[in-house]
Each structure stands twice: as structure tokens, then as C-alpha cells.
Amino acid sequence: MVENQWHMLDWVATFMYLGGMIWVGWYVSRKVKNSTDFLMAGRSLTFPMVVATIAATWYGSGAVFGTAQLAYTSGIVAFVFWCIPAHLGRIPLALWVAPKVRGIKETTIPSLLGRLYAKPVAILGAILIICYSTRIMDIVSVGVMGNVVTGLPNWSVAAIIVGVVILYSLFGGLWSVVMTDVFQFLLMTSLSLLLLVPVWSSVGGFEGLSTIIPEGHFRPLGDLGIKDLAVYFILGFQVYADPAAYQRFGASNSAQTAKRSYLTCLLIWLAFDAVMTLLGLSARAIYPDLQPNVAFLTMAINNLPPFFTGLWMCSILAVIMSTMSSFYLVGATTMAVDLVKPLFKPDMSDRDQINYTRIFMVFIGACGVGMAFQFKTVLDAVVFLGGLYIASAFVPVLGGLFWRGRRTVAGGFLAMLMGMTTTIVWQFMLGNPFGLKPILVALPVSFIFFIIGNTIGQDIRTRDNA
């Protein structure tokens, strides 16, 4: 049993950080005058703000614990085959998708789907985004962190952190989320090297690692099979239908800002991924007998001085909490604007819209805590929830924006419905036959039904021009 050297000064750093997040959320709430301010930050985010909020939002538990865990178990394949393709694949997103989204008035993925197809597709998209916004992988992460530090049950610490995230997000909506993201972005980038320097020295760099960890960890593809490699590769492209990214595109003060911000983030993401990969390899060398995520955190706690250990832990919390706050706002906005308003309360006032969004943020956070701990590791949760979303949303969203062939309501609806259904049935009812993760089956099924569905009904462009 490895003893963790957690000091009272580390608690001081942790409480300073959590209190600071709540204070920032309250302070910027004065900017909120209407629902546009609350949900879209007045569509006035500048280039530095968009860079900070996009970079911080994308870096959740998958990018931190997922990358470190994969590096721990399989080696540099975490960087070579998961991180690099994922980020290079975002270049078309920045060049073509971001400016296109900034140029339309819709503020959520469901409203965009409603414009591209019709209300049934928008409603189905809303349900999907609400599920994705529970962020169960992030909740698993903070639960693991809390358990390593305090010994308390994972769910109890996770509930406290979720409560803090919701509290500061309730104050000012997207303004609170963005401004806390700016602070969290600075924290995570400035402290990401803090742990790497002493750890890298203690393991003796690459030369030292080569004598300790398995040889296969230095192969570009590791010892992973083609099925696993395909899963990690495909997961990198879920951002093409990512609701938080589309919200930031729409909230930018111009299409040029949306494009430049995303391209700038690519360099930040690659650098951070390289650090997480090296830390995962180091954790394997120092604590080869611990569970990967526990080894990663234990290494941090026992290789930094008091207070700085707490600061580093807060930098990881910052990465995760910035993502949670963004998605809680996105999911709650979706429930209020895309479900309750059109279906039950079409005369919803501006103030009601804000209040409903706040209520639904609490609801989504509570649901996430209730569902998260059926997954044993962060990577398991990332693969399932990320796979569910990309298999269901990727084809109808990108197809709606760029498909030049015949496009109908049935095409968008069936692509999303069959992606969702196949993922759930494959995972929970069939138990992943042939060792295939649901995404490898559900994504092709979604595309096939997109093609089939587009032969049914009236072409949308003909309908719109009528």
C-alpha cells in the first residue's frame, strides 16, 4: 500500500481554488442582463477569451486521465494514434465549420438540427445532448481524485465538486463559464510542467524509462489491436458535432475569431497531450502495480512539495471542472430552449428561460453523479459516452451542413436514432459481441440509415425553396 503525502497546505491551495471559482462566477454575473448574455455571453467573446474557453473546455477527463491511462497501459500510442490525429483532424473544423456556424443564428445543436431538418430531429438531438452533458467521465475522474486524497467514497467527493461547478455556473451562465475558463486555462497551462520536471528527472528521462517499462510502450502503435486503435482514432472526431464547441463558435464576436481561436488551440492541445503522455509513462515506471489513474495521482502527490501538490491537483481539477461547467450549461440550455419552450411553454419569457436553465443545470449534474460510477475507469466512460455521441450526432450534423446530395428529414432522424439505438443495444443488451466497441458498429449504421433515409420524403432544399 502506497502512502500519499497530502499536507494541510495542500488543503489550503484546494479551498483557495474552489472559493476563487465561486467568487469569479458571482463577480461576472453582473454582466448578465438578458438570456443572450446568460446563454451566449452577448455574442461578444474576444479572441483571447475564445482561445481560453475552447482550450479549457476540450480538456476534460478524457484528455487528462484518458491520455495518461492509455500511456500507462500501452505507451506512446496514446500520443501518436489518439492525440495527433484528433488535433490535426480539427483543422477542417476551424477552417470551414467554425465560420459557417458563426454565420447562422441558431445557438444550440438541436436548434441547428431543427433548421437543417425539422422538429423531430431537433428533439432527438436534444435528448442526445442532455445525455452527453451529464459528463459521467468527468465525474468518475473527480471521484477518483477525491478518493486518492481523502479516502472518502468516490461519489461523495464527486457530488461536492459537481455542486461547486453548478454554483458558479448558476450565477452568470456563459459569462461565468468563460471567465472561470480563462482562469482555469492559465492554471492548467502554467502548472502542467510543474510535475513533469521532478518526475522526469527521477525516472531518468527516456533512457531511464527504456530500462523500466515494457518495450512495447515505445512502439508507435504499442501492442493494441486494430479494433482498439480504430476506437481511439474515431473518438478524436466527436468534436465535429460537439455542442460546447458550436456554442463557442456562435458566441464569438466574428467568424474570423472563431476560426483563428481554434487553430491556435491546436498547438496548446498538442503540447498538453505530450505532457500527459510523458506523465503516464512515468507513472508506469514508478508505480507499476497500481491502477493507472491511482498511480498517476499518487505520483503527483508524492513528488511535489506541500502547497504545490495542492496547486497541481487544482490544475487538474481546473481542466475537468471547466469542461463540466460548459456542458452543464449546454445541456440545461438544450432542455430549456429546445424541449420545454417549443413543446410546453412557447411563451417563455427571457427571465423564465434563465431560471429554467439554472434548474436544469442542477438536474443534469445530479443525474451524472447518479449514473457515473457504474464505470470502473475514466477511459471506459470516455469510450462509451463519447462513442454514443459521435455515433449518433456526427453524421446528421455534418451531413446537414455539407451533404450535397438529396437530404430529407427521414435521413437525419434515422441516422441519429439508429446510432443511439445501436450503441445502447450493442453495449448493454448484447455485451459487445466479437470484442467490438459500440462505436465501430453504430457509426457505420448511422451513415447507412442516413443514406437510406434520404430516399424517403421530400428533399429539404426543394421544400425550403417552395
Structure in words:
This protein is mainly α. It has one domain: Sodium/glucose cotransporter (Up-down Bundle). The protein is 77% helix and 0% strand. It contains 22 helices and no strands. α1 runs antiparallel to α11 (174-203) and α10 crosses α11. It starts with 7 loop residues before the first helix and ends with a helix. The model has no long low-confidence stretch (mean pLDDT 80).
Give the integer mean of the pLDDT values: 80
How large, in whole angstroms, is the Cα Rg?
22 Å
CATH homologous superfamily assignment: Sodium/glucose cotransporter
Main β sheet profile? none
Estimate nothing, just give the exact number of structural domains. Answer: 1
- CATH topology name, in short, is Sodium/glucose cotransporter
Short overview:
By secondary structure, this protein is mainly alpha-helical.
SSE blueprint:
Elements: H1 8-28, H2 35-40, H3 47-58, H4 61-74, H5 77-88, H6 91-102, H7 109-116, H8 119-132, H9 136-150, H10 154-172, H11 174-203, H12 205-210, H13 226-235, H14 243-251, H15 255-286, H16 292-301, H17 308-343, H18 350-372, H19 378-402, H20 409-429, H21 438-453, H22 460-465
Helix pairs in contact: 1-10, 1-11, 1-17, 3-11, 3-14, 3-15, 3-17, 4-5, 4-15, 5-13, 5-15, 6-14, 6-15, 7-8, 7-19, 8-17, 8-19, 8-20, 9-10, 9-16, 9-17, 9-18, 9-19, 10-11, 10-17, 10-18, 11-15, 11-17, 13-19, 15-16, 17-18, 19-20, 19-21, 20-21
